[in-house]
């Protein structure tokens, strides 16, 4: 599938789980999983079917979220070796069952910078390789820089997305597509039997007098990004994800740049998304960290800030431990939220904060949670 589309990806099991499986599954043969990874398959003669009452509950799923990533300025040279481009944060991202981030740049070749924009971002297909190598599984391009080089670049963008999805370490790109259906289509990730659906959309810079990205929306007959100025399609997608998957995640590009507290529009939409069935709502665009915490039955992180960017500042990786529902449909629940506190340095990369810097980060999270109207 060369568009942004529903794509099954199975994260590799942890080493301990693999060793345990090898010890007990003596009579297993090996087949390929959805992402081409080995998966044990019992033979027909040595795997008696157990009663349903002996099945163990599914384990919780750990999902890592990072903010805005581009490869401008000091970061541009890092794509000469995309395998190590984001090396400082690889451990924090790859350690989760699923990692999601925002790729805030046009990707591909051709096209021209939009002359009406003050800032235009561009990266070659190797940017997708860099994200995958860092442990990111799903990248959203529903943002106000995805079409910085015009629709003329989109054919090469879709080719790059298709190639990234078919590699040994696949990356799924959502939030952009050849039409609205493709742009809003979620990724579907199977983590040891728990299906996580991730849908993305942009609500950023919709004023055409200030920024042209309001006209970048994909339609029924035009390529573009998933635009949620009218959230009807987004909310419908979340309802389907709640019905068809075990965990529903919405990743949005929204809010007001430079603001530390979410806007009334963000807070209103977050409530609607949680009521529609979103278990997790996260976002970017403000270029500042905003509050995270519980909202009703869901968990909301209004602003993840920058992550790989040419401007130094605080950042981090938010890892949520999510307990899947006992049956579908049903609500998943975030049982733990943990930050990898970090700061972007002069090299544009996130480096872990320790000591007093980590303590300040934790105190700031508490203050931002309060101004966001969220609870622990």
UniProtKB/TrEMBL annotation:
Record-given protein name: CapA family protein
Entry keyword tRNA processing: no
Domain Capsule synthesis protein CapA intervals: 62-311
Organism listed in the record: Nocardioides hwasunensis
Pfam family, one: PGA_cap
Entry's family note: Belongs to the CapA family.
N-terminal signal peptide: 1-27
Top-level taxon in the UniProt lineage: Bacteria
Disordered: annotated segments: 31-55
Signal in keyword set: yes
InterPro entries membership: Capsule_synth_CapA, CW_Biosynth-Accessory, Metallo-depent_PP-like
Swiss-Prot/TrEMBL keywords: Signal
């Amino acid at each position: 599938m060369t568009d942004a589309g529903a794509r099954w990806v199975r994260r590799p099991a942890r080493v301990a789980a693999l060793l345990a499986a090898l010890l007990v599954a003596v009579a297993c043969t090996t087949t390929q999983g959805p992402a081409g990874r080995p998966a044990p398959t019992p033979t027909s003669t040595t795997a008696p079917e157990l009663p349903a009452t002996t099945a163990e509950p599914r384990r919780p799923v750990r999902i890592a979220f990072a903010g805005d990533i581009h490869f401008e300025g000091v970061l541009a040279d890092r794509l000469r070796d995309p395998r190590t481009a984001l090396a400082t944060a690889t451990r924090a991202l790859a350690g989760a069952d699923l990692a999601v981030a925002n790729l805030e740049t046009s990707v591909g070749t051709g096209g021209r910078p939009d002359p009406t924009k003050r800032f235009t971002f561009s990266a070659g297909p190797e940017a997708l390789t860099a994200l995958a190598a860092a442990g990111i599984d799903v990248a959203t391009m529903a943002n106000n820089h995805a079409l910085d080089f015009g629709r003329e670049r989109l054919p090469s963008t879709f080719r790059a997305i298709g190639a990234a999805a078919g590699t040994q370490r696949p990356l799924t790109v959502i939030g952009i597509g050849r039409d609205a259906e493709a742009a809003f289509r979620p990724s579907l990730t199977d983590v040891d039997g728990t299906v996580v659906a991730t849908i993305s959309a942009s609500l950023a810079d919709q004023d055409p007098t200030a920024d042209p990205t309001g006209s970048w929306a994909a339609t029924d007959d035009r390529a573009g990004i998933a635009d949620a100025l009218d959230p009807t399609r987004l909310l419908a997608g979340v309802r389907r994800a709640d019905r068809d998957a075990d965990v529903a995640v919405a990743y949005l590009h929204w809010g007001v740049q430079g603001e530390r507290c979410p806007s009334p529009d963000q807070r209103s939409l977050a409530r609607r998304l949680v009521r529609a069935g979103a278990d997790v709502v996260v976002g970017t665009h403000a270029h500042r960290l905003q509050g995270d915490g519980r909202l009703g039955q869901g968990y909301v992180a209004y602003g993840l800030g920058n992550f790989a960017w040419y401007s130094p500042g605080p950042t981090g990786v938010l890892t949520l431990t999510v307990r899947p529902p006992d049956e579908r449909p049903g609500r998943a629940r975030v049982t733990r939220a943990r930050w990898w506190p970090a700061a972007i340095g002069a090299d544009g990369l996130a480096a872990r904060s320790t000591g007093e810097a980590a303590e300040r980060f934790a105190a700031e999270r508490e203050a931002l949670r309060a101004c966001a109207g969220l609870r622990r």
